[in-house]
Amino acid sequence: MDLENSTPMLLQDDDQAMLDDLSSFLPSDLVIEILSILPVKSLIRFSYVSDSWNFLIFSSDDFLKKHLHRSITDSKFRHHHLLAEIKRNDFSGDMYCLSNSPKSLFDNPPPPQSPLSMILYDHPSIEFPRGTLIIGSCNGLICWVSKCDNCVHCLNPSTRVESMSPPLGRGLLNSTMFGFGYDNLSDSYKIIAIYKTMGEVYTLGSGIENRRKLEQSVPFAPTQWKDRDSGARFVSGALNWLAIRPDGTLVVVYVDIGHEKGGYFMLPSVIDENSILDSPCLWVLGGCLCFAYELGNSESTLWQMKEYGVSESWTKLLNFRFEDVGNICLSQYFPRPFFMFDNGEVLLRINKNGVFILYNTRDKSFKKVILQSDDVIWYQASTLIESLVSPC
Amino acid sequence: MAEKASESSNSISLNTVDGKIFKVSPTIANQMQTIQSLIKAYDSSRVISLPHVNAFHLSKIIEYLEGKSATTVSAVKEFEAQFMKDLSLKQLKGLLIAVGYLKVNELLELMPKTVAKLIENKSVEFLRKFFGIVNDFTPSEEAKIREEIAWAFDGVDED
Q1: Annotated domain spans of chain A
Q2: Where are the domains of chain B?
């Protein structure tokens, strides 16, 4: 639309005055509605249109929540990003990057051989020094602890605001499992640390000295499969880890982040048949807890818990043999689910060099997608939804 | 097209700010919350005067409400896209005021999306002009903020 393109219809002087003073003639909720569907970057820029917009964008809790709700429920996932853990081929370091919206990656795919920057959301990549443990991400915030400074860090990559706690006490980091999530009862963000079965809670922004014991801890110690995989999956107000019950059964232990109480539930029963699972993992896809594993170094299976906490609702989403999707299996690079679209398609990284498949869970068909082939190894990813939430 | 639907005895008469009378069916009128409550408050035989809404904007709203009753979802989407594309910026602003005043449910959902898409990559100056908002920051305040969030000014479209 062209600003100067006046129309042939008759416009009275009154009309022109109204158009010049649009905001005075619009109900304020209509203006708020428009702003609530904008990307965070636009809102940051528009925060200095006027004093009242600045207040709305940075200081109104109602607006923040409305914007977050709009972003989460956006049917085109325009404000969703993949928070991907990538490695340089020369193993020079680990880093995380934020991709463009997953839908735009497939609606407007970058040409083959594109550099990594073509598919990145415009925040610079986030590089972590060795000894960084990503605790989790929630409502646009990424939280991690660092062995270098022994502090809890939190970053909102969309607003580029970062916070850092005072140093934690000594000894907390070794074989401690962590989780990060939003508690809607107290309207706050919490970090949970579990050591064996004992838990501690720290509320973001409250001062580290205020951390306290979990009222009711977890029944079994969460299992750490890999050195750096100590973060929980946050879904339906609870943090979830895999754990092995004393009788050898693999289960999910959780902490309800609002009530600060732990418990456990069962995984799909079919996995008990004397089979040895490779690389069992929990994920969050389509807003539900998911469980993935590999069998016999040759096939991949993914289950989704349709109703959180109800073991009967585990549903097998996909199961394929590596050779059927053209995966040359390297045990470190088992297929990893990255994202699930609302039509039931699951994006999986199947090889290390940017080779993905979009697997249709309804008709079991798939198509291969190559995202880019820079010197980058895609490892795994979770979803980050851009928000105005402050990490402080 | 509005006049054609007017023959039925229970049609509602709307008088636009530029003095044109539209007769609309109750089905159309009931999709505008403001008209709905005015009909309830008075009686439907009375001519309802509409401040802030001219004949062009009202005819567009009626065109939309009649057109979006297409049979398939994709046909509705196509119609909506064309409907919005045909509007000039000036018409879009006028229609936004009319829709905000009349509270046309469906358009209260569609128009914010259209406007958001239009302004997403625009400059602060474009926004001030578009909404008619006076800059109440002092030049030094403005310079300071611009420096703090310089990254948010990358990739802004020309006005």
Answers
A1: 13-72
A2: 4-120, 122-153
Q: Which residues of A touch B18 (CB under 8 A)?
A: 10, 12
Q: Residue A333 in contact with residue A353, Cβ under 8 Å?
A: no
Contact A39, B119 (CB under 8 A): no
Q: What is the pLDDT of residues A340-369, one digit of tens each?
A: 998 889 999 887 777 888 999 888 888 888
C-alpha torsion sign, points A328, A333, A339, A340: positive
| Assembly ipTM | 0.89
- Classify domain B4-120 at the CATH superfamily level: Potassium Channel Kv1.1; Chain A (3.30.710.10)
Nearest CA in chain B to A42: B120
Q: What pTM did the predictor assign?
A: 0.88
- Give the helix/strand (H/E) hosting A293: strand A288-295
Nearest CA in chain B to A29: B100
Q: What pLDDT band is residue B1 in, cutting at 50, 70 and 90?
A: very low
Q: How far is CA A200 from CA A132, A164, A208, A213, in A?
A: 20, 18, 11, 4
Q: Which residues of chain A have a CB within 8 Å of the CB of B33?
A: none
Q: In terms of C-beta density within 10 A (0-12 exposed, 13-18 middle, 19 or more buried), how is residue A34 classed?
A: buried
| CA pair distance A317, A326, nearest whole angstrom | 20
> What letter represents residue A153's amino acid?
H
Q: Which of B115, B123, B131 sits opposite A23 (nearest CB)?
A: B131
With tokens 């934690």, the residue in question is A168
Which range is least confidently modeled, A118-122, B70-74, B83-87?
A: A118-122
Chain A residues touching chain B at CB-CB below 8 Å: 1-3, 5-7, 9-12, 14-15, 18-27, 30-31, 33-35, 37-39, 41-42, 44-51, 53, 122, 160
H/E run at residue A355 = strand A355-360
Verify whether the Cβ–Cβ distance B87 to A160 is below 8 Å: no
Task: Identify the pLDDT of residue A171.
Answer: 56
Confidence (pLDDT) at A6: 38
Measure in Å the smallest separation between the Cα of A106 and chain B Cα atoms.
20
Q: Name, in order, each residue with C-beta under 8 angstroms of A28's C-beta and a sequence gap of 6 or more.
A: none
**Three-state SS letters, A5-52:** CCCCCCCCHHHHHHHHCHHHHCCHHHHHHHHHCCCHHHHHHHCCCCHH
Enumerate the residues of chain A whose CB falls inside 8 A of the CB of residue B112: 30, 33-34, 37
- Contacts of residues A164-169 at CB distance under 8 Å and 24 or more positions apart, as own/partner, are A165/A202, A165/A208, A166/A207, A166/A208, A166/A209, A167/A208, A168/A208
User: A154-188, pLDDT tens digit by residue?
Assistant: 999 999 999 988 887 665 556 788 999 999 999 99
